Every structure is written in structure tokens, then in C-alpha cells.
Amino acid sequence: MRGNVKQAVPFFHVTDMERSLRFYCDGLGAVRTKEWAPEGRIRWCWLELGEAAVMLETGLPERATVCFMCADAVALYHAFLERGVAAERPFVGNGLWVTTVVDPDGYRLDFESPTEEAEETVYGG
């Protein structure tokens, strides 16, 4: 697992994307480098400020998640299961394999890695 996790990225669940983009981009100077905009409205985006990043998404019940960008999230999924940690079966979202664990206080931690697999693919292994 050492060397697999590369970056921790806060994932904020926002109520008004346009207001949040004005704050982060216009106010703080972040740059939107990736986005998902079904029906022409931005629902998810990746913002960069220097070497730091933050993700924003609307329409989710949680308020915040920490996403760990990894070399291989599927390998981490197997490592977590071997250690007795309840991890959700990986799926593909926004071009990333995603597996999720919840810490003892209920905080959601997503472990994600880039993939060419089709969106919404669920890991079968």
C-alpha cells in the first residue's frame, strides 16, 4: 500500500454550484480543470489551486468526503478487505475506480484511481 496513495482531495457537496464556483474560482483563484455537466449544467468539477485540489458536486446527501487519489484503488480495496475493513465494491465514476470506506465516526473516505473502463462499471473481482 505504501506509495499507492498519492493525494488527499476534499470533496465538498454544495447546494449552489454557480455560487461555489464564483467563490473558489473568482474569489480564491482556483482553476476548473475537469467537469461533468449532464444537461448542460455543471454537477461535478475538479478545481486546482496551485498543487492543491478540491472537488465540488451538487445533489448528494453528505456534506464532505475526503478522496485519496491513488495509483490503484482496486488493489487498496483488496488490501482493506484482507485487514477486515468493510470497503464498498469499486465502481467507475468520472473516469476513476472508486472504493469507499467509512471511519468509526462516520466520515466517508473514497480511494480513487484513473481508469479507461466505462462509466458506472462495477468491479467483478
Straight-line distance between termini? 18 Å
Largest sheet: 8 strands, mixed
Low-confidence stretches: none
Radius of gyration, whole Å: 15 Å
Number of helices: 2
**Mean pLDDT over the residues:** 92
Helices and strands: which structural class? alpha+beta
Given the C-alpha coordinates, what overall shape results? globular
The CATH superfamily bears the name: 2,3-Dihydroxybiphenyl 1,2-Dioxygenase, domain 1
Total tally of structural domains: 1
Strand percentage, roughly?
35-45%
Map the helices and strands.
Blueprint: E1 5-14, H1 17-27, E2 31-36, E3 44-49, E4 52-58, E5 64-70, H2 73-82, E6 91-93, E7 96-102, E8 108-114
Description:
With 125 residues, this protein is an alpha+beta fold. It has a single domain, classed as 2,3-Dihydroxybiphenyl 1,2-Dioxygenase, domain 1, CATH 3.10.180. Helices cover 17% and strands 42% of the residues.
